[in-house]
Amino acid sequence: MDDQKQIIARRIKELRLDKRLTQKELAKQTGLSVSSIIGYENGLREPNSKAMAALERFFRVSGDYLRGEIDRVTFHKNSDVIDNVLKESLDFVSKKIINTESDHTSSLEGVRLLINYYLSLNDTGRTELLKRASELTQISSYTDMF
């Protein structure tokens, strides 16, 4: 087993055990097969991009973390910053969506889709998305002039 597969195998297993899940439960919750989970954890195979995205979303970690490019301490330090920014962004977006739509069910669905989209982005994509969200807060200052 090469180093990359070994690191990914160890990280997936650690994350799964942290959540007290069996391999079968992880497979069900991520939409991956049990044999895939077993293969990843035993270092027999490496997750493809679709599987990596599913694991990243489920465990709320980055691909960098799963591949061992950053350690657990660095990841947790960065995740606190990301969580705070995400919370602020979601608060802003949810207020905008709820204030502009009368159907709250579709509002909540919009927020859910936004969260899923955000979590699927890499670090650069998240940074760019947050910049754009910040820029959107300035729109009202321009529309008030009319």
From TrEMBL:
SUPFAM superfamilies in the record: lambda repressor-like DNA-binding domains
Classification via SMART domains: HTH_XRE (SM00530)
InterPro entries tied to this protein: Cro/C1-type_HTH, Lambda_DNA-bd_dom_sf
Keyword DNA damage belongs to the record: no
UniProt KW keywords: DNA-binding
Superkingdom as given in the UniProt entry: Bacteria
Gene Ontology MF term list: DNA binding
Keyword Isomerase: no
Protein name in UniProt: Helix-turn-helix domain-containing protein
Species this chain originates from: Anaerocolumna sedimenticola
